[in-house]
Write a structure and sequence with these properties.
Number of strands: 8
CATH topology: TIM Barrel
Distance between the termini: 16 Å
CATH architecture: Alpha-Beta Barrel
């Protein structure tokens, strides 16, 4: 049986870097398991985003609160990147420790096939973005982490996304100051987490000359703008980390409620993905072809 053929990690990294250099808005859906990864991969996106919130929730059934380890997450990176053709930026939290851990994490993510890595400046244990209780490490410590990440990568096309969570606890001015320092340290993409107004988004877009990422969280702190409007403000990449996860959770609740109430699934069947298409998405035609070729 043939396995799913994927482009090499190097090719994916080159494709992502080239795409971001155009400064046209790129939209990246959040993937959190192999079904979401394969679905998004089949739809022609230029980039996918491995969400920490969704991956920890689906893989461990835990909140994204610093509980997942490097081993947990690099396992998911390898699975997602090995089973898809689209470049993926993968959440790596704080790098899972000090400078040596950051170097180890970056090399592991790169070897696992990621096109980019996201590192943030939160204190450990970190918290999910757009939630309360997030505190940041000293600016100088994060600058050192970024420099180590730059030194540790083998492929210069591997994108290092530097995220600051300073806006929520210290204000927008401090967040912009950190962004400037992180860019000077060698970050390829800047991610100012959870700005709280269009005016703040505009300030971010006007402050930097490298690709900027905006985190579009349904129900989060940041205003919901269209990708076209985000591009006008200066952003190159808009991630939608939990949109798919929330949609799946709502569909599961609706379907399971019908089953639990003894009504069956007839009333929700029209909202379901067709069984035949799910079989195709997961590769069953190749299994059937193999069986046919080797039948007695």
């Amino acid at each position: 049986m043939e396995t799913k053929k994927t482009h090499s990690g190097q090719a994916k990294r080159m494709a992502l870097k080239t795409r971001l250099s155009k400064r046209e808005i790129t939209v990246a859906p959040g993937i959190f398991d192999m079904i979401s990864a394969r679905m998004a991969d089949s739809m022609g996106f230029d980039c996918l985003y491995m969400t920490g919130f969704g991956t920890v929730a689906s893989y461990l059934g835990l909140p994204d609160a610093g509980l997942a380890t490097y081993t947990d997450m690099v396992n998911r990176v390898a699975a997602f990147c090995g089973g898809t053709n689209t470049p993926i930026i993968c959440d790596a939290d704080t790098g899972y420790g000090g400078l040596l851990n950051v170097a180890h994490t970056l090399r592991g993510y790169e070897a696992a096939g990621a096109a980019g890595i996201q590192l943030e400046d939160q204190e450990f244990p970190k918290k999910c973005g757009h939630t309360p209780g997030r505190h940041v490490i000293p600016l100088e410590d994060m600058v050192s982490k970024i420099k180590v990440a730059v030194e540790s990568r083998e492929d210069t096309n591997f994108q290092i996304v530097a995220r600051t969570d300073a806006r929520t606890s210290l204000g927008i001015d401090d967040a912009l100051r950190r962004g400037e320092a992180y860019a000077k340290a060698g970050a390829d993409v800047l991610f100012i987490e959870s700005p709280e107004s269009v005016e703040e988004l505009e300030r971010i877009g006007q402050s930097f000359d490298i690709p900027l990422l905006v985190n579009v969280v349904d129900g989060g702190r940041t205003p919901q703008l269209s990708p076209v409007d985000l591009q006008k403000l200066g952003f190159s990449l808009a991630i939608y980390p939990i949109s798919g996860l929330l949609a799946v959770a709502k569909s599961l609740k609706d379907t399971y409620s019908e089953i639990r109430s003894l009504r069956g699934t007839q009333s929700v069947e029209s909202a379901m993905y067709p069984f035949s298409e799910m079989c195709a998405l997961m590769g069953f035609p190749e299994v059937w072809a193999f069986d046919h070729a080797h039948a007695d």
